[in-house]
Design goal:
Blueprint lengths: L2 H26 L17 H4 L6 E5 L6 H10 L2 E4 L5 H4 L9 H12 L3 E8 L6 H4 L9 H18 L6 E6 L17 H6 L3 H12 L4 E6 L5 H16 L6 E4 L2 E3 L5 H12 L4 E10 L12 H20 L4 E6 L29 H6 L3
Parallel strand pairs: 1-2, 1-9, 2-3, 3-4, 4-5, 5-6, 6-8, 7-8, 8-9
Helix pairs in contact: 7-9
This protein binds (3S,4R)-3-hydroxy-2-oxopiperidin-4-yl beta-D-xylopyranoside (XIL).
Amino acid sequence: MKNKPILIRTGITLLSVTLLVAVIIFLTSSKGPWGIDSGQQDTKGLKDYYKNFFPIGVAVGPNSFDGATGELVKKNFNSVTCENVMKPALIHPEQNRYNWEPADKIVAQAQAAGMKVRGHTLCWHAQTGAWMTKDAEGKPVSKEVALARLKEHITTVVSHFKGKVYCWDVLNEIISDSANVNKMYMDTDPWFNICGEEYIPKIYQWAHEADPDAILFYNDYNTENPVKREKIYNMLKKLLAQGVPIHGVGLQAHWNMNNPTEDQIRESIDKFASLGLKIQFTELDVTTISRRDTSRAFTPEKEKKQMEFYKMAFKVFREKKDKITGVTFWNVSDRGSWLDRGGRKAYPLLFDTNNQPKKAYWEVVKF
Ligand code: XIL
């Protein structure tokens, strides 16, 4: 008899708590109580929406795991690429000195967060120390010396990250942008100038020997331009016919709001996949800067156009998911992009200058 009021009181308390919890859940649900998107409360990140499609990556620096940006990175992405610190000039600044620390820091933080790591890049015309291809007088070294340096560099770097970096952009941007179909290679590339095309199969072979499990990519931009696409395709086809260990093609995807078209993106995916290669979009961003446009603001018109572009691109990516093994954004948020120049901001990403999801973000996750 004495216990009854206590039981009733306990029952009422439990009921109130349950109701309160239900109201809190209702009010903070990802779409909000009235179907309004409220990014801050959404517990899902980009990677979760795309878990049945492909990993979603981001290009980062050694401090990108700190603070609020770090939280954003861990919530939304399950793959990282070092924006700069694995590039030859940074990781191998002098012949007898490697600078592992910044890249090791990123790899350790990514691993602790359960993220995959893409390697970028082993051989490129840019961000490569002059010491690699020039002698003390500044003259190009001989082919033998160039090849020996390249082999040492690739073997050392790939071995260092063996088992930690799952894929490598072995060669970056060797194909010429010229509209002339017969001009295959970028003639400003120091490695090409010294060695001719014979270094290309070799670098893949060296990377493969250093880590037979690593997935090896060719990576380039303007891959939707029909002429350049044809040249890349021809080079890859020839290398594959020679038995060169190339497993994937990285389409950088530095795009703008008008280019490429939906069909061009589809055609590129299908064409490269027809070689048996896996496709990754490795450096995705959609700039809002154009030559004709003088406004510096992220206007509602730009916001809408960019949103439509992103919606279209991800629709194609989802449709082609069997051919795509990753989509990586080049930088985290509009707070800082490599495309911001001379005080002009490009606003090219899915998160705004306050690290909040943009309208384009909500279109990308709505399917
Ligand atoms: C860019 C970085 O984002 C910049 O910080 C750096 O100053 C230059 O390189 N293609 C590539 C990337 O393969 O490595 C480039 O990254 C962007 C174009």
